[in-house]
């Protein structure tokens, strides 16, 4: 039998953060039918500070990738808070990844892979998703990356 997402998190030595509150006028998650729309999140570290700066100037591609992984951890915490049991996740449907980067930077996909790879590690095939990875001139609070996601859950 396949390990549950919670067991996978333990195997990866990942402890979920307390769900961070929105920084503006929105909510973390909206449910319609069996779909959850999770708002864009920035990369928050254990010390409650954010990974900030431009990839390609202030951060390397690898550091951007790690920042995107932190967003995945935060999104998983939102999911856990919203549905309780992560085994209720039927499919990570679509992720939209935004990279705060220099005009010359072209490896947005490698950065957002940090997000996508962790979702696959935690949810297995249910974690494979459609995705966009785009560059942004700036992001709120100077986040290095921001990702939003659509998730299908069981009834």
UniProtKB/TrEMBL annotation:
Organism from which the protein derives: Salegentibacter agarivorans
Protein name listed in UniProt: Enamine deaminase RidA, house cleaning of reactive enamine intermediates, YjgF/YER057c/UK114 family
PANTHER family: ENDORIBONUCLEASE L-PSP_CHORISMATE MUTASE-LIKE DOMAIN-CONTAINING PROTEIN, ENDORIBONUCLEASE-RELATED
Domain of life of the source: Bacteria
CDD domains: YjgF_YER057c_UK114_like_1 (cd02199)
Domain Endoribonuclease L-PSP/chorismate mutase-like: 14-151
Coiled coil feature spans: none
């Amino acid at each position: 039998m396949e390990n549950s997402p919670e067991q996978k998190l333990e195997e990866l030595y990942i402890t979920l953060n307390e769900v961070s509150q929105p920084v503006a006028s929105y909510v973390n998650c909206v449910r319609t039918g069996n779909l959850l729309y999770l708002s864009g999140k920035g990369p928050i570290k254990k010390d409650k500070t954010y990974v900030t700066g431009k990839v390609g100037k202030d951060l390397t591609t690898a550091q951007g990738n790690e920042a995107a992984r932190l967003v995945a951890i935060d999104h998983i915490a939102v999911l856990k808070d919203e549905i309780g049991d992560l085994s209720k996740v039927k499919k990570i449907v679509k992720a939209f990844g935004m990279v705060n980067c220099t005009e010359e930077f072209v490896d947005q996909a490698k950065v957002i892979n940090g997000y996508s790879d962790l979702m696959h590690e935690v949810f297995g095939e249910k974690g494979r998703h459609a995705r966009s990875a785009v560059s942004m001139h700036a992001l709120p609070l100077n986040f290095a990356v921001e990702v939003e996601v659509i998730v299908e859950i069981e009834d």
